[in-house]
Design a protein that fits this description.
This protein has 4 helices and 2 strands; from the N terminus they run E-E-H-H-H-H. With 110 residues, the chain is mainly alpha-helical. It has one domain. Strands 1-2 form a two-stranded antiparallel ribbon. A hairpin with a 4-residue loop joins strand 1 and strand 2. Helix 3 packs antiparallel against helix 4.
Length: 110
């Protein structure tokens, strides 16, 4: 975290942390997006990959909980505008995990 303090303001910059997160999760070449546009996004069951598909197997390797925790840290410390998009992402991941658990006979851990 980089903090710049002047007579009339304090600026907190998390760009180094964000760049490290993007690099950690293989997203360093992603394009910036306005988070306010997420309200037009419709989430549905059909967006979840089918169990056993290549997409499903690839998704199993991704650290969704790590991403959520890292972005929650940003929300709490300096970027409250990310809270809404994070809540949508958490809902989608939670829905997907519950669907996988119910289809595979695993107990629900939520």
């Amino acid at each position: 975290m980089h903090v710049v303090q002047s007579k009339h303001e304090v600026i907190v910059d998390q760009s180094v942390y964000v760049k490290a997160l993007l690099r950690k999760y293989g997203m360093e070449n992603c394009k910036p997006s306005n988070t306010s546009g997420i309200d037009k996004q419709k989430l549905s069951k059909s967006m979840c990959p089918e169990i056993g598909s290549d997409e499903y197997n690839e998704a199993q390797k991704f650290d969704y909980r790590g991403v959520i925790g890292s972005v929650m840290h940003l929300c709490v410390s300096t970027k409250p505008d990310l809270s809404y998009i994070l809540s949508i992402f958490i809902l989608l991941v939670s829905f997907w995990i519950i669907r996988v658990q119910s289809m595979s006979g695993l107990p629900n851990t939520f």
